[in-house]
Write a structure and sequence with these properties.
Blueprint (H helix, E strand, L loop, with lengths): L6 H14 L6 E6 L2 H14 L6 H4 E5 L5 H8 L9 E6 L11 H5 L5 E6 L10 H9 E6 L7 H11 L3 E2 L1 H11 L3 H15 L5 E2 L1 H7 L8 H9 L3 H13 L6 H23 L5 H8 L6 H10 L2 H20 L7 H12 L2
Parallel strand pairs: 1-4, 1-5, 2-3, 3-4, 6-7
């Protein structure tokens, strides 16, 4: 059965709550495409299972390429010394040899040990019997990669869980700046929490602009907004600013963001053509907040389906030019200015 959107976040939050309260499973299998969740959970488990002063004797952290399954099992079956629990963590567990040897241990895990198999951007093979045995005793957490269009909502949920709030435009700015790299997003959010600590519980667009590398006025987020309303002067001004520092604003990321934007516009075109033209319909089609429905409605007027498809094709051409060297003497800055002009023709 397909996993529900957002299920990783919900399961992550639930696991964090249990770990925080000292409710531990004898075995954790942490795996999936998104390493951020796995890293966070391992960090929490390490912080809480064994008291700091007892870790030299009761905590073992291995790496999958440096140990085999038998050594891990032997360690997990060793009684703790003057402590209630022993913690055994295997990072990069996808590199473990003979992982099937964990089968008998999963069927009868040591009650005095917390064993963590942490996979990095990988998963245990669900077709193998060892996985089925793990299901009987282990907490199995599978992390899904967050899609680009889901990032603003993910940011809002993450911030809310920490007891803060973030404005829609601030969430969009962060999503545009960080993409779907959750490690980077969480670091930037931590900076913002520190910046507003003791002053406010709300993160605004101004707060994001003042405490991260995001420039609110000159960003891809503002460029797509200018394109939506066909504000030629503003679009060129933003493109010129971005082009001045192609190291900070790589062309490949700008093209990717613009392609994502025009795909959303195409979805909005399709929704309107199907008679789904309310603000809620448009926001759902674009995968954004309701407050941005007006912007995408304007974009649908200025970029009907045929035009949106043409823009996506154009972006592919420029992506090829940039990566293949087919642009001749033109640099990234010249290509970006030319591209923005053609998108508004």
């Amino acid at each position: 059965m397909a996993r529900r959107p957002g299920s990783s976040f919900n399961e992550f939050a639930e696991l964090k709550s249990k770990i925080s309260s000292g409710e531990f499973s004898p075995v954790y299998v942490l795996m999936g495409d998104e390493p951020f969740y796995v890293d966070e959970l391992v960090s929490m488990i390490v912080q809480r299972v064994v008291p700091e002063g007892m870790r030299d004797f009761n905590q073992n952290i291995f790496y999958g390429n440096e140990v085999d399954a038998r050594d891990v099992i032997y360690t997990a079956m060793t009684y703790p010394v003057f402590a209630e629990k022993r913690l055994v963590v295997v990072r990069e567990a996808q590199q473990l040899k003979k992982i099937e040897e964990f089968g008998p241990y999963f069927e009868n895990p040591a009650s005095f040990t917390v064993l963590v198999l942490a996979f990095t951007s990988a998963s245990m093979d669900k077709r193998k019997s060892v996985y089925k045995k793990a299901q009987k005793s282990a907490v199995i957490f599978e992390s899904d990669k967050v899609r680009d269009y889901e990032m603003p909502s993910w940011i809002k949920r993450y911030v809310s869980q920490a007891g803060y709030s973030i404005d829609d435009d601030a969430a969009h700015m962060l999503a545009e700046y960080c993409g779907n790299e959750l490690r980077m997003v969480s670091k930037e959010i931590s900076k913002l929490f520190q910046a507003i600590s003791g002053k406010s519980s709300r993160i605004t667009a101004g707060c994001v602009a003042g405490n991260t590398g995001v420039n609110r006025e000159f960003s891809v987020f503002e460029l797509t907004k200018a394109l939506s309303f066909r504000d030629v002067q503003k679009a060129y001004r933003i493109a010129y600013y971005l082009a001045k520092d192609v190291k900070k604003n790589p062309m490949v990321l700008i093209i990717g963001a613009l392609a994502s934007y025009f795909v959303k516009v195409l979805k909005v075109d399709a929704a309107i053509a199907a008679g789904k033209a309310t603000d809620d319909d448009i926001a759902a089609a674009a995968g954004t907040f309701r407050s941005y429905a007006g912007e995408y409605r304007a974009a649908a007027r200025n970029y009907p389906a045929g035009k949106a498809v043409s823009c996506i094709s154009m972006l592919k051409d420029y992506d090829y030019k940039m990566k293949s060297g087919a642009s001749g003497a033109a640099g990234d800055a010249e290509l970006l200015m030319e591209l923005v002009g053609r998108l508004m023709m």
